[in-house]
Amino acid sequence: MTIKACTKCKLITNEERCPLCDGVTSTNWSGLLIIVNPDKSNIATELGINTPGEYALRVR
Question: Residue 28: which residues within 8 A CB-CB, separation 6 or more?
Answer without folding.
Answer: 59, 60
